[in-house]
Every structure is written in C-alpha cells, then in structure tokens.
Amino acid sequence: MSGIKLDLNTDGIDVVRHLQDQASGRTFLITGPSEGGIGAETAISLAHGNPALLILVGRTLSKIQPTIDAVHAVNPSIAVKFIAADLTSLNSVREAAQLTVDGFELQFATAHLGYFVLTNHILPKLRASAEAGKKPQKTQIINVSSKGSILGGGIRWDDPSFTKRPEEYKSWDAYGQAKMANVLFTLALNKRLLAKTGIRPYALHPGGIYTNLGRYVDEELMEEVKQRAWKGQEIPFKTLQQGCATMLRAALDPELEKEEDGVFLSDCQFTKDPELVAPWALDEGNAERLWGLSEELVGENFEF
Known about the structure:
GO terms for molecular function: oxidoreductase activity. This is WGS project CABT00000000 data, contig 2.21. Keywords: Oxidoreductase. Belongs to the short-chain dehydrogenases/reductases (SDR) family. The protein has 304 residues and is α/β, with parallel strands linked by helices. It has a single domain (12-298), classed as NAD(P)-binding Rossmann-like Domain (Rossmann fold), CATH 3.40.50. It contains ten helices and nine strands. The protein has helices spanning 12-18, 20-23, 38-46, 61-74, 90-96, 106-131, 171-197, 219-229, 240-252, 284-298; strands at 27-31, 53-58, 79-84, 140-144, 200-205, 208-209, 237-238, 264-266, 269-270. The longest helix has 27 residues, at 171-197. It is globular, with a radius of gyration of 18 Å. The model has no long low-confidence stretch (mean pLDDT 88).
C-alpha cells in the first residue's frame, strides 16, 4: 500500500481515499455503528469511497440514525440499510441474519457468541457474493478484537460465564476472554473458509479509543488495565479516525492477501507481538476447541 504512511496515526478516511477503487460499488455490513463509536466512524469513512450499500446492525434505529445522516451528508446517493439486532440475544441475532435472555456472561455473549451466530448465519450470503459472476468478488470478515486478549488466563473452558465459580469474576478477565475468543474464532474461520471460498477473515486491535463504551470504565478499572496491559505506562489513545484505520485497511487493501498466514493486525500492520496479541490466541488447537464449545453453547452446528 505505497503512497500512504501506515502506523498508529493513520486516519480511516485517508485509507479509504487511497483505496477508493476497492470500496466503490461494494457492500459493507457493520455492527455497533452507534454515534461516537468506531463502527460509526468506519461507516462515515467508507462513505468517502462511494460504496453501493452500507448495512448497519444495531439495537435501535434512533441510535443509528445519526450515523446514517452523517453518511448521507458525505454522499446522499449511498444506500443505507438498518437491521435491528441485539447481540446479547442469540434469537435476535438469528432474526437479523434473516433466517426466519440466554444466560451467558455479558461480554462473552456480546463480543463472541453473538458474532459467532451472526457470521455463521450470513455465511451463505457471503459465499454467494464471493462466488458471483465471472470474477470472484472481494469478501472479508473482520472481527474487532483488541490488545485485551493478553488479559486473563484464556478461555475458561468449563465455566466461560463464571456461573460455576462466580466469586472468580473480574471485569478485565471476562473482557480478555471475549477478546481472545475474537482472535480464535478468526483463526477457525480462516481454516474453514480461505482455501474453499477465498473469503479472508481478519482480527485486529484498533487501539485505545475514547468511545461511548468508556462510560462504563471508572478510574479504578482504568488504572487496573493500564497496569496489566500497558505495564503502568500511559495508554496511547487514538482518535476515532485513527481507530477505524486498521479495520478499513483490512477491508480494502488487497496487499494484505500476500501474507498468507497473517490474521491479526494492529496500527494497520500484521503482528504477532505478544504485547499486542496473546500467543495462546494464535493457537489453532485452541481455535478448534473454542469452535466446538461455541457450537455447544449456542445449540447449533455449522457445516462448510
């Protein structure tokens, strides 16, 4: 991707403008696009690339409407479709996938199980898109993980929702488990999809960003994560534009496909740095074990 500097300071709009031919005329589905978040900033940035359709998945239209308005302020000709879905409810996710609560730990359910079900239910549509026409269509699945995979001790295989031992629950441990699950899910998807369909899954760390989710993090929790993940150093926060740049490169840049074993990105680059992604999260054995556990928890088996 020559002609643009790719690092922690890269803006999403710059990525889209540089790769406009990769965005033009394509369809993008974005979860979590409420105002003030990375999903919203990603959609607004993509509007500068003239996509054919943006599908925005969120809980309520009222929270997503400001993002729709911002997209149309950039380019009123872009088609935007809103789909209502609550990723904490698996039934809601299944309905959102257009094929027709559960008692799981909130972060694990929202950040992993909801996406596990959603992705598997829309895969037939993604495969049809990838295989349509004489020339295969560029298709990616991008799971927004974080540096949080280095928190905690991995997946609690016998008790992922802390129901057996609730006294062991810690917010950052649960967060770390969910973010590690994002990476392991991506590994398992890559094994199942890339060779057969050409669909390329990626996981990534967008960076530390002040978003609406920050309202749930008090000073004590912030200090704890600073000590555990940044070794007591100040967290290098990004702007929303800088935060969406890595996912936009993953979505648009064909140069990434040249690195066949690349799965996890940070600051717009592939990385296996253990300070950014836990080595345990890049283990294919763990990825297969999580896939089996996830199918068991959601009560569905997914064939490819």
